[in-house]
Amino acid sequence: MMSCRPVRQESSSGEACANCGKQGSDTIQLKNCAACRLVKYCGVDCQRAYRKLHKKACKQRAAEFKDEQLY
């Protein structure tokens, strides 16, 4: 089972892009995956590049979010 988790690196924010590893800062605003909110990306290009690796876990977590909202 594949589990997507945010890439953690030592920085002030403690967050990094899931694809390239760039750390979030005042100039680089990381955005959450809109469906599962488990990983962050520095931009659309990284999100598209990482999609194949993230797709299965993303769909599973998005379904869990939907179930949580229903119950």
TrEMBL record:
UniProt-listed Pfam families: zf-MYND
Record bears the keyword Zinc-finger: yes
InterPro entries found in the cross-reference section: Znf_MYND
Residues of the MYND-type domain: 17-58
Keyword annotations from UniProtKB, A to Z: Metal-binding, Zinc, Zinc-finger
Entry's Gene Ontology molecular function annotations: zinc ion binding
Region (Disordered): 1-23
Name the UniProt record assigns to this protein: MYND-type domain-containing protein
Protein species of origin: Thalassiosira oceanica (Marine diatom)
